Structures are given as C-alpha cells and as structure tokens.
Amino acid sequence: MKRTLPVALAAVLAMSLAACGTSSGPSATAAPDGTTTLKVGTIGIGSDAAIKLAADKGYFKEQGLNVEISVIANPPAGIAAAQSGQLDLTYTPSIPLLNALSQNVPLKVVAAADGYKDGASEGADLNRVDDTGLLVQKASAISRPKDLEGKNVSVPARKAQLEVTVSKLVKDDGGDPAKVNWMVLDPSSALQSLNSGRVDAASLVAPFTSKAVSEGNRLLASPGVKFFEEGAIGLWVAGANTVKGKQKALEGFRAAIYKANAYANGHTDEAQQVSAEITKTPLDVVKSGAVNYWPEDVRLEDIERANKNLADLGFLSSPVKLPGDLIFGK
Question: pTM of the prediction?
C-alpha cells in the first residue's frame, strides 16, 4: 500500500490511457459556441444516474459545459488518468483516493458522487441503504463475521474496498482478517461460486447483492455502511493541473452535479430507471436492492473517518495527512 507512485500506478495508468484516448490537456479553451469540454470518467455503476441526469436535463449546458463521459476500468485507473490530464474528473470512492494521497498524488475533491444519509448506519434495514453485501448460503453455519476465519471469502480485488470493509466487520467482531482466505472473483463468478459452495461467503455489489438473495442466499452483513457510516463515499476528483487550469469549469460541474443529486434524491423512481439502464439490470432487481443516495456536500470529517479506519486495519501504515484544501472551493 505504501509503494512509490511509478510502481503503484504504472499498470492502471496504462489501462486509463487505453480507456480514455488522448488528452487535450488542462487548458480551459472554450469552443466556438462558448462551451468548455470536461472529460469525466465513471465506472458504470447505478449511482452514475445522477451524472446521466445532469447531462440529459441540460444542467451541464446551463453551466456552459460539454461533459464527455467515458467508462474507465476501475477507480485507480481513473485516478491515474486524472493525475496525468487524460481525464479532467473521475469517480472514485474515498478508499482509492486515500491510497493515492498516501503516495503523494496531487488530487482535489470537486464534488460528492454518492454516499449515505446522516445516521444511515443506525437504521434497522441496512440492505436498503448499502449497495454492498456479504452473502452466505442460507443453510451456512456462518452466523457472524468472526466465523469467516479460515473460510474462503470472495472479493473483486485484493486490498480494495470490499476486502477493507469486510475486514472491519471481522475485526470488530473479534476475529482476525488475516485468517480469512481471500479469493479474487468478479461479481458474477463470485455468485456462481457461492451457489456451488466453492466459496463460503461472497462480497458483492448491487445488483448482484439482490440477485444473490433472490437465489436463496442469506445477507450476513452490510459492510459499506458499517465502515463509512454516513456522508459522501463516492467522489468526483480532479488532478491539480486541471484544478489550476479549469477552475471556472469545475465550479460549473459542481453546481450541475449538486442540482442533479438533489433531483435524483427527490425522484427515486426516475433515478432507478436510469440506474437500471446504465447497469443493464432489470428494474425490479434495482428496486429490490439499496436505494442510492446522492449527497450535496463533501465533509472532510467523513474522509478522515475512512482514513482512520484504513490505518487501524493496517491498510495504511498511518493515517494520511490530508491537505487543508483537499476539497475544491473550501
């Protein structure tokens, strides 16, 4: 986790170059019609409904922006592309952001992309607010996170968000995450392996969480909301050069996104329809899972909470010293 930038990000930078094509750099030169183009990377998840709504409803156009959206391989690839100027903005959860900041990657948080309402972790039905889930077979003897010691547990990637959040569940329950047999499987393969018994538990994201339950599996825990608790989790971030060269455009992006976030929160059915289209998931499956929430602010204390948790779990050697100007415009 503490590798130098060239080693840590070389592979994902190559992916981002392939995904995003060439860049015109951070210049804020306007087109003949007066608009400024921003290249934005997403990862194709349900909460992308807000940025899609911002484009479809003309919120970006109102700010004089032409936003070009492309799907990138994963958040680290997006971060590498934003740092290099291949992208102006990219989506990332706070965990990859903190990993990048620990390697001195100069990034700024421009706006909130998704997250949890205040007090979300105290709710009784966490699977309705958390789009991640830890699933076991219905007849499994695993009844609590500590029982995962010595068991095969799938994650989409090592040392990434689901391993981190499930590790906290295990540790908080008195177990040792180092004794878990972590297996890297994509969500579809993970669900198949859970159903066949190849893995004892699967760490999944929507819509696979709902699909797993519909196939008779049992939700053991909701790791995301337990780890983050509340506030902005998914973030729109930009590289330092983009912030310097396109400040007015980024201000417009933030205003448009927050208008779209508010609209999505107030029009759940419409937002879920867009989510279903983005993820190519049946609408009834989307509606049976977690209800996305789009914050309208980013608070430094929410990022600091994730920062402390990463250090407590050993994913960082110590908490990252967050710059006071990490959040754009604050």
Answer: 0.86
